[in-house]
Amino acid sequence: MEHRFKARSRTSDAATRDEILYFERMGFATWPALEVESFEGWELRFADGFTGRSNSVQALESAPGGPAQLIARIAHCERRYRERGLSPRFKLTAAVRPEELEQLLAERGYLRLSPTRVQAIELGDTPCPPDPRVCLETRLDPAWIEATTRLNRLTRAAVSTWRAIVERIERPLFASIGIGAGTEAVGLGALQQDWLFLGAIATAQSARGRGNATALVRALLAGAQQSGARGGWLQVTEDNRAGLALYARLGFQDVYGYWYRALAP
Questions:
Q1: How far apart are CA 231 and CA 121, in angstroms?
Q2: What whole-number distance in Å separates Cα of residue 220 and Cα of residue 164?
Q3: What is the pLDDT of residues 7-35, one digit of tens each?
Q4: H or E element at residue 195
Q5: pLDDT value at 131 more than 90
Q6: What is the CB neighbour count within 10 angstroms for residue 173?
């Protein structure tokens, strides 16, 4: 599916609704929840509480009805998340439907959390130079899981959920620098349509400042280009200054922003 995005110099709600929906729906596929429930045009995603993206309501479609019906829909979502021991959480963008949802959530005590930028880069026809330090695989290696668990500081309880999510990715790319306990950096790519999603990029504290993250991203983009992808995209929180600086140097540009509204536990 051919799609072009309008690059922006900062997080902006000026992205078209079609642009936002395109990337949001790719995100559902590239970072799959363990379970999804559809309810009156909304999607309720569940993954044992691991990551906000996989444990939040995606409110992208409207349903008939007035304020009372909307409140009932929110209450249904709250009940379903609490039944699983999770705090009710909505992922919001400028494409949220209905448009008055965020105001109503705020009135119900939902806090605004984790403002995040969705950024993308188009690869063009010039080949991306791979980095010989990076090992790039399409098959999941237990050693990669171990290194990713360690470098991303995942809790023991989160490891099984993390692995279950990764195993659901249809076209993965696994990147690493180093071997076994000496692995210095890891990253994950997920091909969907003609774009590569990049995530879970982490570097060992002792190996920072050596260009490892840059090498990982470039290698993942090179691998994606060889597979026919026309661009790469990622999500980076607004408080991640190092990540924002890295992706800016590599040429990523903002497409739109998202954030969460969540009730306290």
A1: 5
A2: 22
A3: 444 444 478 999 999 999 999 888 999 99
A4: strand 195-203
A5: no
A6: 24
Phi then psi dihedrals of residue 145, to 5 deg: -60, -45
- Best CA proximity match to 262, nearest among 92, 48, 43, 85: 92
**233-263 per-position pLDDT tens digit:** 999 999 999 999 999 999 999 999 999 999 9
Can you tell me which residue has the tokens 């188009």?
Answer: 122
Mean pLDDT of the chain: 89
**Which residues, including other chains, have CB under 8 Å from residue 182's CB and lie 6 or more apart?**
none
Whole-number Cα distances in Å, 33 to 55, 70, 223 = 7, 24, 25
Report how far residue 241's alpha carbon sits from residue 245's, in angstroms, rounded to the nearest whole number: 6
- Run of H or E residues at 173: strand 172-177
- What whole-number distance in Å separates Cα of residue 123 and Cα of residue 127? 8
Contact at 8 Å (CB) between 235 and 88? no
CB count in 10 Å sphere of residue 162: 20
Q: Write down the pTM of the prediction.
A: 0.90
Tell me how far apart the alpha carbons of residues 225 and 209 are, in angstroms, rounded to a whole number: 26
Structural contact between residues 120 and 252, judged by C-beta atoms closer than 8 angstroms: yes
pLDDT tens digits along 56-115: 999 998 877 788 899 999 999 999 999 999 999 999 999 999 999 999 999 999 999 999
